[in-house]
Amino acid sequence: MIRSFTxxxxxxxxxxxxxxxxxxxxxxxxxxxxxxxxxAETVEQTCRQFGIPPPLIHEALAEASLxxxxxxxxxxxxxxxxxxxxxxxxxAPNEVDIFIGPDFVLSIHDGEVASSAILMEKLDQGxxxxxxSPSGLLAHLAMMGSRRYPVLIDQLxxxxxxxxxxxMRADPRALNEVYALRxxxxxxxxxxxxxxQIYDELVEDGHPLVxxxxxxxxxxxxxxxxQVLESLEAARSLLGSVLETYRGAVADQTNEIxxxxxxxxxxLLPLTLISGIFGMNFFDIPLxxxxxxxxxxxxxxxxxxxxxxLYFGRRRFVGTPRLSELPRAVGLGIYHVGTAPxxxxxxxxxxxIRYVTGAPTEGPGQDET
Length: 369
Known about the structure:
Layout: E1 2-8, E2 15-19, E3 29-36, H1 40-49, H2 54-61, E4 68-72, E5 75-85, E6 91-100, E7 104-109, H3 114-124, H4 134-146, H5 149-168, H6 172-205, H7 212-278, H8 293-314, H9 326-357
Parallel strand pairs: 3-7
Antiparallel strand pairs: 1-2, 1-3, 4-5, 5-6, 6-7
Helix pairs in contact: 1-2, 3-4, 4-7, 5-6, 5-7, 6-7, 7-8
């Protein structure tokens, strides 16, 4: 899709409606041409129409790259990155190539760019630019793009709140989500740092195509992105804390399982010893000829088991249940110990399926994150 807006000198609003063709720069003003998802042939033809050097055309047609700035005597070439929510709710970058000349602005991108779409809508509604110049258009797009970053950071903070509860429960889903969010934060920082440097250079270098009003607007963009980077650093620190919380919860859970297994082993060890002794192939075994010898032995074994359980309870190795609750507590303990590996494997399989299919992760207190 091709959209063109034409400004005349001293006007903040473009004249006429946006057209689906490449407009020529007027004699007394400048033009903005936006190419969205056009073919390589259309992009190359349009760039040649505006006198863009072939090396820069090749750069604009190349694969996605990090933000960069090239300044020439009568041309500024800027590569910026915007963001959108991709598959699975993850942050995905979108490259925008912008050429700024004395009487034109040419922007090239594949997907939808929110800042460009919002600005076009404002222009259609009769809202003009604060600094009506090619560099002012760049500053306006930069500010509108920067104001979308807090929305992404707010989403990160919402997901962090749900991750804290998952991490405290040692839920395996928390680990995958932490690594996914860390990847999003790294992607944002990797783009924001050079982009802020680009705007800073445009402010400090004093290029003749950047007027004073545009420099003031770009200074605001630099300050705004510095605040965004501080928020990203805070989110990065919180992710580290959530990861440590998850590891600590997993360690506590593992220690609890090992403790329960150890207590059961310590209780069963003397019982196994007694049953082994009475199971030896000898004729002269105590209580072997007694009519109630078997029940006496079983009663002694039960007494030993109960005594050991109470001993470990007083040492706070395990909880000390009431005698009426003892059978239920032992049964639930054996059940949890036996099903813990199965539940862990099931959670891991479910997380893997959600990751492969791109389905959002369910968090506590909400249906989907």
